[in-house]
Design goal:
The chain has 241 residues and is α+β, with helices and mostly antiparallel strands. It is 31% helix and 22% strand. It folds into 2 domains: 11-106; 126-239, Immunoglobulins (Immunoglobulin-like). Helix 1 (11-26) runs antiparallel to helix 3 (40-60) and helix 3 runs antiparallel to helix 4. It is elongated, with a radius of gyration of 29 Å.
Length: 241
């Protein structure tokens, strides 16, 4: 039964799931429950949920006997079974005796361990500094399609930040690269770098740097294939305060 959830949400599918799993747990020598590592008590409780559900569901699907109480009981049994069965399904999935037939019955597909190829990131991020006071700064990185919130590019593992603190350029004056005597700022000239798996990066500076201007660049990174990293953002600036 193909579904994204191990335990189906749709009532008719859930009904079929309970029936087929109980049959599988009861069948064989040793029976499926013992072979897959369930205790006798767990096996019996699984069967008890099936019996409760079967009796209630017969009333629920009949318009002449369906009531709010019956409906509430149906939902309660389904929820209780889910809480009971989910940890057992984890154990069943890890059993060395699990067969392809078991996987299909209990809805336990094998995990896809093949990495999905990711292409190059052609879009550079947008980034800015925000002063939080007390020498703390926040770097917010986002896509140009997410103007109101920090966001990662779907092909990226995270963000690389490079920044430098100007020695002389302070206050609210615009950055003047000539003051450093080294031309326009570039990522290669930045003296600090940091990697982040999130689109919000927090920096803390000492009190002697308060009032200094900070210049930064950011790019999306692919940790398994750096050749697919994005280009660098435009430089962005802030005042440490």
């Amino acid at each position: 039964m193909a579904t994204e959830r191990r335990i189906p949400a749709k009532d008719s599918d859930f009904n079929s799931y309970l029936g087929t799993t109980v049959t599988a747990l009861n069948t064989g020598t040793p029976n499926g429950a013992e072979r897959l590592g369930l205790t006798t008590a767990e096996h019996n409780e699984w069967i008890d949920y099936f019996n409760q559900w079967s009796a209630n569901y017969a009333l629920y699907v009949n318009p002449d006997t369906r009531t709010k109480t019956i409906t509430d009981q149906k939902n309660s049994i389904k929820e209780a079974f889910g809480n009971f069965a989910r940890p057992l399904l984890n154990r069943i999935a890890a059993s060395p005796n699990l067969t392809p037939s078991d996987r299909n019955t209990f809805n336990l597909p094998e995990r896809d361990t093949t990495p999905t190829p990711r292409g190059p990131i052609y879009e550079a991020p947008i980034a800015n500094f925000k002063s939080l006071g007390g020498g703390k700064m926040e770097v917010r990185v986002q896509r140009d399609t997410d103007a109101t919130r920090a966001s990662l590019h779907p092909l990226a593992d995270g963000v690389e930040l490079r920044y430098t603190i100007l020695k002389e350029n302070t206050g609210n004056n615009p950055p003047d690269p000539e003051r450093e005597g080294d031309g326009m700022p570039t990522p290669e000239k930045c003296t600090h770098s940091q990697l982040s798996s999130t689109a919000l990066i927090h920096l803390t500076f000492t009190t002697d740097l308060l009032g200094k201007r900070i210049i930064g660049f950011a790019r999306w990174i692919n940790l398994t294939n750096p050749a697919n990293n994005s280009g660098w953002s435009e430089f962005f600036t802030g005042i440490i305060s």
